[in-house]
Amino acid sequence: MILSTLLLAALSSLLPFTTAGPHARLKSPRKWSKKPGLVEILSTIASSNSTFSPAVSAPKPNIFLSLSDDEAASVISFLHNQTELNLTANADAGPWDNAIEVVDLVQPNKTDALAYLDNGGPIPARYAMARISFGATEKPYLQEFMVGPLPISKTSTYESLDWPTTSGSSKIRNYNADDDLLTQWNLDVTASVADIVLDLLNGTATGSEDDDFDIWGIDPLWMEEIDGEQRVIVWNTYWRYPSDEDAVFDGETLLPQGLFFKSDITGRDSSKWRLLGWLYGDIFYSTTEEFRKAWKSPGFLKYELNLPGEWIGSDQTGNPFPADDVAPPVAVQPNGQRFAVDETQKYVEWMDFSFYITFTRDTGLRLFDIKYKGERIIYELGLQEAIANYAGNDPVQSGTSYMDTFYGFGPYAFELVPGYDCPTYSHFLNSTFHAAEISTTHRNNICLFESDPGYLMQRHSSSNYLALTKNIVFTLRSVSTVGNYDYSFDYVFALDGSIETIVRASGYIQSAYYAKNNNYGYQVHDALSGSMHDHVLNWKVDIDVLGTANSFVEHKIIPVNVKYPWANQTRSTMQLERARIENEAHARLSWPQNGGAMFLVENSDKPNKYGEPRGYKIAPSRGGSGMYLTIQDSPNLLKSAGFAKHAVSITKQKDTEVRAAHANNDYDPGHPIIDFDHFFNDENLNQTDIVLWINLGMHHVPHTGDMPNTVFTTAQSAFIISPHNYLLNDASRTTRQMVRIDYNSTGVQLVKEFGGKMASGVVNITALQPDFHAYEGDVAVRKFPYDPLHPFNDTESIV
Amino acid sequence: MILSTLLLAALSSLLPFTTAGPHARLKSPRKWSKKPGLVEILSTIASSNSTFSPAVSAPKPNIFLSLSDDEAASVISFLHNQTELNLTANADAGPWDNAIEVVDLVQPNKTDALAYLDNGGPIPARYAMARISFGATEKPYLQEFMVGPLPISKTSTYESLDWPTTSGSSKIRNYNADDDLLTQWNLDVTASVADIVLDLLNGTATGSEDDDFDIWGIDPLWMEEIDGEQRVIVWNTYWRYPSDEDAVFDGETLLPQGLFFKSDITGRDSSKWRLLGWLYGDIFYSTTEEFRKAWKSPGFLKYELNLPGEWIGSDQTGNPFPADDVAPPVAVQPNGQRFAVDETQKYVEWMDFSFYITFTRDTGLRLFDIKYKGERIIYELGLQEAIANYAGNDPVQSGTSYMDTFYGFGPYAFELVPGYDCPTYSHFLNSTFHAAEISTTHRNNICLFESDPGYLMQRHSSSNYLALTKNIVFTLRSVSTVGNYDYSFDYVFALDGSIETIVRASGYIQSAYYAKNNNYGYQVHDALSGSMHDHVLNWKVDIDVLGTANSFVEHKIIPVNVKYPWANQTRSTMQLERARIENEAHARLSWPQNGGAMFLVENSDKPNKYGEPRGYKIAPSRGGSGMYLTIQDSPNLLKSAGFAKHAVSITKQKDTEVRAAHANNDYDPGHPIIDFDHFFNDENLNQTDIVLWINLGMHHVPHTGDMPNTVFTTAQSAFIISPHNYLLNDASRTTRQMVRIDYNSTGVQLVKEFGGKMASGVVNITALQPDFHAYEGDVAVRKFPYDPLHPFNDTESIV
Fold first, then answer.
1. Which chain B residue shows the shortest CA-CA distance from A739?
2. pTM of the entire structure?
3. Can you name the CATH fold of B179-312?
4. Mean pLDDT of A218-245
5. Which of B95, B146, B241, B421 is most buried, by CB atoms within 10 Å?
């Protein structure tokens, strides 16, 4: 993706680009803390009868696997040979060139995939997606192509990747292709009021190294009709750089300065661009002259400065607790890993679960073909899009509605830190994405680990006995830092057959200047408002219960009055009402008030032996229920937020309806490539292949507790799917990790264990301490301009 | 509490009475796994600069502390000296005697307590509550008395404890005082249809040791008008005892047999009691003759038997996972305890939190005077009542609405198992309650522990650095097994200043016979229906934010259309609307749809330096939001369920409105001692001392996954209170458990730690294995009839 100057200005200060020394070749994922001789573990595994091996080969090759470096290289090379595309090497390309931005896998059609996975069909042909920016035109645009089959051969072709779109075309206009011009425009505008800026904000923005301010603004851009013409509008504002002493801290989004200007940047000739006005202290000045006149007037109201300082730092502060220099409890894995990973095929087995992993530039980690006890439960589980929709009394906050796949979750899913991000004993995996004609590998950016969440799965005591079952869960985690926010994604598998999807947010809020902003959030510092916003993150959950012929049913708990044969009076009681969502026309749902209904996906034709259809229940599990946008008709998001307007939506599965959103929708949200609302065509949903689109998130009104960073504890949201009349009993009865203690008045009579060894051995905790100096930074690619001074490690040049 | 025959029948089979060998004196709580020489921990604590000591003395004596054994004994002795009470020693008392059931502390008035705690006032006089059953009358009743001041002296008196009631009197009629008669009545009724019972249910109930069936039914009893008179009605049914091979398992509630009979048991002369009819297969027969005639008729429909078998057992079953005989990860505390406990005063300090604990017969564990950074946040936090409200096509399920404080959470809060219920390194406390004139101590029935919940508090990464903060939480846990269900209660304190209250349920469901019951739940076994029910558990949360002058505000996130000075068109956006709940008349709330509002308690007169009132936010945190009763006008609960009809209620604090419910309401729910609805008097709630009453729970429609036991993972509910504009920044910045890693393109430049040691030392995991044979059973008192063959350990005879 070629970033416009505007976006680059924002990103260069906001997005983390982590680098480290070069390596000749990609290393295999680091096994943390294998310091032979220091970790003493007694030979308990050998003494057990376990035949378990943590190595496994995927039963079939992973057809969802990200493109290999070689595949990406061959696709890029193939495209450069197509002269009609007129491509320039990305490293050399300017705004007026055509260049490849992203290469990724075209996800195989489910139809083909199931034929292959289940019915001995052929392995689906592999195709690449190539996202190309066409700059060599007065009307720059982006377009995606499908290239293949792979490997590239004489029969390989390319064509516009239009079939997964709702607009009919993967083309989208780029109204902001000229980053260099916009940067200069902003500096020129600022220069024209340098005296005012110095007076009001006490700083300068001239383009030099010692600038005080960074200038950036709304995302996405607006289209406004002026004099009967559609114009491209941007509102920008001033953000102060953190001061020298606090420079390490990424707190620029806490430093809005409260001065805004509006520009018409229509077209590629910046000499025709126009300044449309200034805003300061909630007063709009339609010309610089008007603004200057007001500023010079007596009584011009100047607001307080929002200055950097220690308060933007996240280091320890305040009186530490006396007990806190002692190390807290820590989890260990004394007897070895209990899950199996095929690192090549990105295939994982834990207990009765298995699944494939993939990783994309747009949405990061994704799971496919999740099986439970040999049956597919979820065909596809993955993030679709993350909206952060702001409001405020100023145009920049009011105009900001991030759609984060535009930036991508893949590029910013960095290396994780053992002992903090994940337990020290985690199994780490690498991930690769291909952007700006560079294949970039994040080392150790996915962790897999078992853990005990601190409460039991099952317990019961009586006068005779006590039965207790451990609740051991298996977590797959990645974290993407998209600018100011760190999104942590967990997929948690449990012994009861449930799968929980959790998102948590930490990092810096994007805040607002305080002046007259109190209807939009709390004042959180001297001249700062918390800037209220909605986070809505959408997941595709393609559940398949015993095949693809599924139905979505609501089982409602309803109050009723019933006259029973055994009662004299009518009784006020409740019943279970089973209702079916028959059609896409009624398939956009809120979570029920008071939890008064269960949402289920069942295979109505596959009842269990008691006649109850086997199914899975879907429910919110953390952070209250929700989440959908407060603003249902955002003038920023326009037709690009259809997926975010309800808590849960259900569609009939179609190979052409792959994603709820498109990473390029942000370029022109009024004319999106994928408009989720178009998925709803009144199609029948009875016993057909259905897909759920579930939103997580929160209404975030930052308060002082978000200073300096929002904390994960209060910013989390999750949904869980769990077996519902699916098996004939509680699935966790299969585990050995339980104990039964029988007793009577003379004491314990019997301790019954079930072959699950208790943790044993001697563990050298000191040797498990993570070595933070071993953090290698991460492999991130500054996509434009390409900076040859940053030879990103683990990067293989393709072109 | 003297249990009626009816209830005793239910309890004797359902409630666990755990016994073990006698001990001379109460031992101090066991420190788990102190096996000297086996646990090798390097001397890291000594080498640190920590001045922390895990021993502490409470700053003031705990005025909420449960009665001591001596206090209880002196109160009982005092009452026995009051001849007008005509008391019989509980051990010798029959239905026609007056006997003391429970002795407990009368919670001090908040007014007096605050004077003492905050303003150097006198220590509040201690008073005991004595709950006495008056059986020596044609109209038996229970009444509570306030006895004191303590210690008992010449000035001590007793009086009816009426002021904390809404009925004006602590007296309540007992319509079912004659357990012995009802047991015999049930057997007589059964004997009259022994041939039918044998034919339909294939078993007998004669009162002998080898009976197949246990007979019990609705709770509470019904009052029905028959021929213009109020009659006491009970519906009973047959429950099969687990078979010999499965006898250890407490699965009787999975074995309803589908035959029901209705009795009029008005009055104390059972010769005047009447059988009012039979129900089988959803057909009502108003006399035994009618039932017999039908049974003998050709075509009488016999339903399938619901028989015991392996399926009611909770042991491991099915093919175990290959990896599962390896021990899973486990948490250790290698460097010592980081919180302090005054075991005598039941006072706890963890980081910036401190609180007092108490324990009552009715509601178990309770917390008082929770302070954070030296300021009281919660004066009182504790369970009030737990309703389990069933529905079904049969009168027993339809008529069952347990109010569990009737049974009590204290008596059934048994010893916890290290390594399962709580980490092996937990700090355990004992608890004592006084019932049936016996002081009973549960050993190790409260655990306190720190843990890492598996995700961070804070993280942020940028191009320059990575900052990570651990999320260490402190948990106080107890578990009460009230009959078939095990309720686990957690109070979780976090470094961000939040406190989470969690309830989870496991154990056996109470189920229904399957015949024609499909509108009320799922069929979950051959002849079994899951019997849908609502769990509603109410907590009193007496929040005090910077004193008692508080207000409850709703901060709503609302969609609005705004015409801004800087915009040409009206924009669709959102705003924060601050609304105050002004009066008790509007103080009964549901959690907002889509999380669209925040519930806050603030001190409006104590804004922070930015003008935002300092407050705490209250929000649902697990298991979706809710929870209130589906059936708002239950004919079983009548006037006793006021607290359960809304998610959150707010009242003005009054010393007379101590509890939302009364343990004796169950005796006559139409005339409860405490009717929560009476707390609402249109009183003003602005800047006054307010109390929140918050419900947790779930609508539980058991499915096959609840067989044999419901699992905690999908049966949990929680609310969290967290600082909201309360401090000037994120409170977790105070912890040392964070790291900052600075890097650039040449690698890590700086690892900044903050004095928090990393876990270190060598831990012998084998030595930490819990010794399940050391489980002592628990100290439970069979209150009636008193069984001299069970010399409950740690019990001190009082009378």
1. B315
2. 0.93
3. Nuclear Transport Factor 2; Chain: A, (3.10.450)
4. 93
5. B421
